[in-house]
Amino acid sequence: MKTEASEQLLLKGLAKNDAKAAETIYKENYNMVQAFILNNNGSYDDARDIFQEAMIVLYENAKNESFVLTCKITTYVYSVCRRLWLKRLQHNNRFSSQIESLEETVAVEEDLEIQERRNADFAIMERALGSLGAPCKSLLEAYYLQKKDMTEIADTFGYTNADNAKNQKYKCLMRLKKLFFSQYNIGE
Known about the structure:
With 188 residues, the chain is mostly helical.
């Protein structure tokens, strides 16, 4: 979690056109905004456009000396993106309800909490994968990310047949699951 002081430093950096500050804000917020846009009838291009518009709003406000941020940057960026996206949907007639009525039905804080929890879970999974070890990590990446079949994996990793590779994949998956939940329970 970022402290209030580091958030203020990020805002000051952004106001002074500091590329590092802008990059940090981007890295910490873009995936959340992209997920929101994609889950609400948008495309990757829409997510980039909306996020860019929100960064401009944040930049212009950060330059204004009278601007006081009363929430986290993440909350602010999410709120701006959400509002911009809902306006665009309404403008494109892809969304029939009035924006005002949405304020009552969709709480920004709830969406944000869900997204923050999901991001935390991904971070725990990344740490678990990192501590899994090279053979298992490579095998799971080959199967789940590179979409290789078991015969191909058996050849690549030197297993006698696809069934042995499948068996090893299962063992690796169980080790990953154990690592994930041991770290997950510590975080709670």
